[in-house]
Here is the input.
Amino acid sequence: MQQMVREVKGFSGPDASADAGAEAEQDRIDERPGRPQPLARSVVATRHEVETFGKLLVSEAYQRRFPAAARKAFVADGSDANWGVWRRHFSHYVPILDFIHALRNQQSRMDYPAYRKQGLPMTSTYVESTVKQINRRMKGTEKFWSHGVEPMLTLVADHLSDTPTLSHFWRNRPHRLTGSRCYQSSAA
Here is the structure.
């Protein structure tokens, strides 16, 4: 697996320390024509079931105008839950198994030479990195959640996103405020 990863990244040889020109090689790889580059990061997160997560993804994809894209890819690991989201909501996207998970039984989603020719992504490293950032913010030391985890997840996701969700919220909030509070009467 280590050798395959090194080959995909453009390196050769048995040991990373043996590559004196690894940095220059990485620059060459980053400049490869047609290589997909992230334009912006949109993050959604929830502790609810996968169906809710799928709907959040659909909403974000729609807001980012993904349906109008000429090329669409759905990159995921081998989890059945992820491929269920693909089947229900993104089946018209090219399904691509993250090449790091290529040891699983997913041959129909492993046509990496074709994906590369189309300029499609072949790894979910951006997603994996974002999950780690969310976990650090939500599961750090001295953090215990009994209530309020869902709104906090939404805030963390909005904070990590390149989309203007939070700034849009704060910019429009004064227009929604009425100056009066809603109180509920208690049944005494």
Q: What stands out?
A: The first strand starts at residue 73 and ends at 76.
